[in-house]
Write a structure and sequence with these properties.
- With about 240 residues, the protein is α+β, with helices and mostly antiparallel strands.
- It folds into two domains: about 70 residues, wza like domain (wza like fold, 2-Layer Sandwich); about 100 residues, Outer membrane lipoprotein wza domain like (Outer membrane lipoprotein wza fold like, Roll).
- The strands form three sheets. It has a five-stranded mixed β-sheet with strand order 7-6-10-8-9, with helices on one face. A three-stranded antiparallel β-sheet has the order 2-1-5, covered by helices on one side. Strands 3-4 form a two-stranded antiparallel ribbon.
- The longest helix has about 30 residues.
- The radius of gyration is 26 Å and the shape is elongated.
- The N terminus is likely disordered.
Length: about 240
């Protein structure tokens, strides 16, 4: 019986270790879903607009997305494109140009991916990637991500600097609680393109996660073993 208990405990510990190792790993480069890619300042668009039923020469431009998130195009002027997909920009330009060109056809291609982004994962409401705005700090991104959840460990937020992905490992620990409670702004670090913010769960949440993900699936086995033992004892 002791061997069985030791075996089960060892299996549970290995499962927890595997879960946390998987959660703590992020690939440096993943295939880009271009259809879902959202534009930001620095990206470059190649745009062509022409009448659908005519052989007339169309309007062709290569336009960078400006710091204000806008591009400029003939006839319609300034158009806000930040955080939109190329399909959404296509639809917007088609709508605007249809007032000037009959049966207009618009083609929008992303010619250059130059927008700067940071990533936030873990215990926040909206994890994901965010565009870097001027002088953006770690608190700016945490706020945009919908603030930390109640399970977050605010004293040990990890900041993986982008240069570490090139081989120079640099992981900084930021005490966000001291920024919030004591106004220690020197801890509110500036961000660079490719930085990763990791908001890990606190100790109590890790115990809860252990019980929910590892112990609960084993509960029927535990009860079955307990019942079998009681029946064997009774007889």
């Amino acid at each position: 019986m002791k061997r069985q208990v030791i075996f089960i405990l060892a299996g549970m510990l290995l499962a927890v270790a595997a879960v946390y190792a998987q959660d703590s790993t992020m690939t440096a480069a993943e295939p880009m879903n271009k259809a879902a890619y959202r534009l930001g300042p620095g990206d470059v668009l190649q745009i062509v607009a022409r009448p659908a039923a005519a052989l007339a020469e169309g309007i062709g431009r290569t336009e960078p997305v400006g710091p204000d998130g806008r591009i400029s195009f003939d006839l319609v002027g300034s158009v806000y494109v930040e955080n939109k997909t190329s399909d959404e920009v296509d639809a917007e330009l088609t709508r605007l140009l249809s007032e000037y060109i009959k049966d207009v056809e618009v083609t929008v291609i992303i010619a250059g991916y130059e927008a700067k982004r940071v990533f936030i994962i873990g215990e926040v409401v909206k994890p994901g990637k965010y565009l870097i705005k001027k002088n953006m700090t770690i608190m700016d991104v945490i706020t945009e991500a919908g603030t930390p959840t109640r399970n977050a460990s605010l004293r040990k937020v990890k900041l993986v600097k982008s240069n570490s992905l090139a081989g120079n490992q640099q992981i900084l620990t930021v005490d966000v609680k001291k920024i919030l409670q004591n106004g220690e702004l020197n801890r509110n670090l500036m961000l660079a393109d490719g930085d990763i913010i990791m908001v890990e769960p606190d100790r109590f949440s890790k115990v809860g996660y252990f019980i929910e993900k590892v112990f609960n699936p084993l509960r029927p086995i535990f009860y079955l073993g307990l019942a079998t033992g009681l029946i064997g004892y009774a007889f």
